[in-house]
Write a structure and sequence with these properties.
The protein is of the alpha+beta class. The protein has two domains: 3-173 and 347-380, Aminopeptidase, CATH 3.40.630; 180-325, Aminopeptidase (3-Layer(aba) Sandwich). Helices cover 38% and strands 31% of the residues. A hairpin with a 2-residue loop joins strand 11 and strand 12 (291-299). The protein starts with a strand and ends with a helix.
Length: 381
Amino acid sequence: MSIAERTMNASTQSASMVVMTDCGGLEVIDRWADKWRKLCHDAVNEQPFYRPEWIRAHIRAFTPQAKIFLLTVTCEGQLLLVLPLLQERSVFDGVPLRTLRAPVNSHALRFDAVRHASAEGEAAVLAAWNHLRQRRDWQLLSLPQVPEGAVLSDLVRAASQSGFYVGELPMEQNPYVPLPFDPAALNTLPINARLRSKLRHISRELQSQGGELKLSRVENAAPSVLQRFYDLEASGWKGEEKSAIACNADTRQFYDEIAVEAARFGYLCIYSLELNGELLASHFGLSLKGRYYSPKIAHDEKFPQYAPGHLIVREILQDCAARHIPEYDITGVVDDWKSKWTSQSRTKFKYFIFRPGFPAGLAYAIRFRMRPLVKKLLQRA
């Protein structure tokens, strides 16, 4: 059974904002999904990871029994802000707390509230916080995987100004590749000159041997296409370490559902690179609002001489440039192979908002006051 609560606590020029919290199971997301998607289209920063189908698939796969806490802000019937959270009890540095947390894990990649790209949307952030601060049913708000410049950074700032305890921890950098549309400028990628020369040499060698490279882009969730990607990913070290999608039923369910929903709404983008009909590399990709994302990648480790992981990136970037997509957002952490393609990256943060008083104040003091002090003393010693 869903529980809805309304609070009239903010206003714009002529109309009051309505802040609602809708609590329950997946039916909560279904109830708001259409308006949520429309808001994403008009949002300040739309990404696949913030859409209702992504959040729904994640909860259904990894936390199906979770109690969803969906905060919305509307004005004259128009949805201005959506913030999906999970309501639970957790232990933070040994202190039990009533917690609202973002529905994310290592497969979620990023998290943010969705707000309308207007002055009313900006005001809705403060309305949302004013509602949250007045509620007494939470002691900790846990918000990991938040990219720099996100909507939630404004909410965290409002919390700090309200006297709530705020903790901020930087997470990993997410690399991205700005794409020029000029073919000549595109030839300057990757930025690593040695790799750039190696890829040219591989292309010439394959051509001299009569090898045919073929890049394909599939935008539907055909089971055969998905299975081909899963098999390739599991054929190498990910399969050996049991971290491949096919090795975990919940993970497989998540990506199956994401593929179907992304295809339904037109942003699935599965790339495959073949050599003489044999699959060399593949991307489980997404293409939305001028960005190409690659949440999952795989290549055949039997062909290191062809650098298949790099080869497919080169072909994908050429395809993106031809389609006037200005950015390849690699989504994962900065590592050696990505640094060969770009020096650009964005930071993600983990935010914590603690309600003043006991016990949340104790948890805040342990993590953000006592721990740094002890660490500093040990370093001096």
